[in-house]
Amino acid sequence: MQFVGRPRLAAELDNHGLHLTDYRGADLRVDRSAVHFATTPAAAADADLVLVTVKSAGTAQAGSELGAVLKPDAVVLSLQNGIGNAQVLRQSLPRHTVLDGMVPFNVLNRGCGAFHQGSEGDLAAADHAALRAVQPLFDLAGLPLQLYADMLPVQWAKLLLNLNNPVNALSNRPLKEQLSQRAFRRCVALAQREALALLDAAGIRPARLTPLPAHWIPAMLSLPDAAFRVAANRMLRIDPLARSSMWEDLQAGRQTEIDWLGGEVLRLAERLGRAAPVNSRLMDLIRQAEHGGRREWSGEALLAELREAA
Question: b/e string for 58-88 if b means 16 or more Cβ within 10 A?
Fold first, then answer.
């Protein structure tokens, strides 16, 4: 396997190697001498399968750089947040097979080459012969890959869950602690209900990625804490280390992916001639936080802010 990424990460892995842990207790180390990490796309020139995992803001640049080096029969799989990243890649890679994919679980970069998977779920991707041929390799890596004939419902189901990302980032709390508080969960429920109404109007039925159908989750999130702990026992199987990637971006001073999460809801609303005030307000608060604004809300204060917007 060949990694391609930024010089900052290359230096980190060269100094420390790769340390992988997960919520189930896995603890794996790869010596730095065994990590093949390059900082230019040319290292992917001979790849048969390319997994694109850059932040959404970097998709167009990644596509352009890959288009200059990939062999014609290479398959490109977008494992990114949001709905439209694969289409952006296709614009730069018109002669290549570009497939939609989805990562359901949370990964925290703990620094010094350590990455922690804090929640469960299987990778998902569009069904294609090239992916069926390599499914056993994903299994061997402990990352089962589920293939779907239609990825759009899967992507929207993931995005609905990701509407918790801005709430988590603004709470400045670990995911499990944040989801244990009813006021924060009600914030997520407001954002999800708004998005679900738009999906219903658009005739899009989200796939079922959790034990509960997507339309039932807002009601479960709104339960009192004691009832929620019972009803969502599996949902709370998130270890104390888990944080949202949006929280991590804010802490690092990076641009977040809010335009590819809440922004997708707003774009859908615009196409339908409707409004999405709750998700719009969450986007505004995250943008303010990106520029030094408030980053530590109580659940009650954030809920009041979103209710006022709605």
Answer: bbeebbebbbebbeeebbbbbbbbbbbbbeb
